Amino acid sequence: MRSKNSLSAIISSVIVIAIVAGIGFLFVSPQFEKNKPTIEFNKDIFWNLKDTLKLTLNDDTGIKYYKIIFKNKNNEKVLMTEVLSTPLQKIDLEVKPPKMDMFFKSKEISIVVEAVDNSKWNFFDGNRVQKTFNIQIDTKKPVANVITNSLAIRKGGSALAVVEVHDENLKDAYILFNKEQRFELTPFYKEGYFVSLIAWPVTIDKFSRVSLVVIDKANNISRTKIPLFIRELKVKNDKIKISDKFIQNVSASVLEQSSQTVPSDLSEIFIKENRELRAQNVKALQDISLKYMSKDQINDFKIKPFRRLRGSRTAAGFAERRHYLHNDEKIDEAWHLGLDWASVRNAPIRTYNEGKVIFNEYLGIYGNTIIIDHNMGLSTLYAHTSVSKVNLGDNVNYKQIIANTGATGAVLGDHLHFGVLVQGIEVNPLEWMDKNWIKTRISNILKESKKIIDSK
Question: Confidence class of residue 3 from pLDDT cuts 50, 70 and 90?
Fold first, then answer.
């Protein structure tokens, strides 16, 4: 009798252990995981009913089924559904818009996403998730009008455009040169109007098109051509012999001061300084100018002609294509995109327009450099200076002395490299030193645009 009771107890214990083990297995086995699939989908979605919507389904055990439904007050359509023979841990989906009739007027719809994973949980049915996403429908293109603009632009030069931009769901608006160079817009005069200086970078050889591009949150895009006559630029080619002494004393020093490693080969030293470091410095000019470019509304833009360094001669001009020779062999080339003025040593440098100092540091090939922002994306560059008379953030006045000339950076001797920047791109300073050019290409365009805007 006792042995039978002992046997029953053992069997009962085994059953209990088996049940506990089974329950434990359900909770710890990856096959019985309880995590629902996740859905990656943007919030605050706007849809133009043309582009596809992108979403991603994720699950550790794999998705075995999904369904996507389009819903509004009057319709419900299944856009996508699939039962997968081989479950996938990640599924990237592109949801195409349904075909709607011409009377479709809904401004809001819902996308319902349902997914089931391959888990054995929930009596082998898997974990199920269903989420509803509210979407704003916007099929209207933004307003993108050109109010007025400069008549022409020269390679390496500047132009101006005033534009009108409207959209209740505006995402982005800018001017695009040749599908390559973007120019930001600045609010102008009245709400919905903007102004931008445009540059034709010397590095872009051929002119094709300048466009105003406006994009809304639903990815409706408007592109409007900005009509410009084009003028060619005469490029001067120079051959410059580079000595061993220059490379050892100047190029190597510039690299060291820029925290760059110095190669052992002389030609490689020069190429690294003249090509690689130059590219970094040119990018820095653009980054700095864009970062500190004022986005405050402009009502007036009074700019005076810039002037040459007093008592100086021009040592180098704008858009000179320099070909560098070392041991009578060409090793590199580069654009010179400013005006070099040489006077006496440590000559005083004045600025001839009000502005704000947005950069005052050592900048590689440019040496000690000051950049002054004059608003509307226009700034001036003063390179190779010795002693600075201003500090970062200072507001400067007309004819104020800001520094003295020097021989810092990649230079042969004491001089000033003067540059004019449009959103960080060096343009022809001679245009901005010409009173008539400023009047006809900039000031008159702004006056004309105000009259047009007021007449609307």
Answer: low
In this prediction, residue 32 has a pLDDT band, given cuts at 50, 70 and 90, of low
Q: What's the number of domains the chain is made of?
A: 3
Predicted pLDDT of residue 58 = 96
Residues 96 and 119 occupy one common structural domain: yes
Domain shared by 400 and 303, yes or no: yes
Residue 215 forms beta bridges with which residues? 172, 221
Which range of residues forms the domain containing residue 402? 236-427
If you count them, how many residues does the chain have?
456
Q: What pTM was computed for the model?
A: 0.87
Find, among 49, 82, 215, the residue nearest to 142 by Cα: 215
pLDDT for 6: 66
CATH number at 104 reads 2.60.40.730
Question: Backbone phi, then psi, for 208, in 5-degree steps?
Answer: -120, -50
Inter-CA distances, 83 with 56, 91, 117, 128, Å? 16, 12, 11, 14
Find out whether 78 and 68 touch, Cβ atoms under 8 Å: yes
Q: Can you give the pLDDT at residue 25?
A: 47
My answer on whether 316 and 423 are in the same domain is: yes
Residue from 156, 158, 232 nearest 201 by CA: 156
Q: Which residue in the block uniquely carries the two structure tokens 């349902």? A: 114
| DSSP code per residue over 76-124 | EEEEEEEEEEEEEEEEEEEEPPPP--TT---SEEEEEEEEEES-STTTT
Mean pLDDT (the chain) is 92
Q: How far apart are CA 22 and CA 435, in angstroms?
A: 90
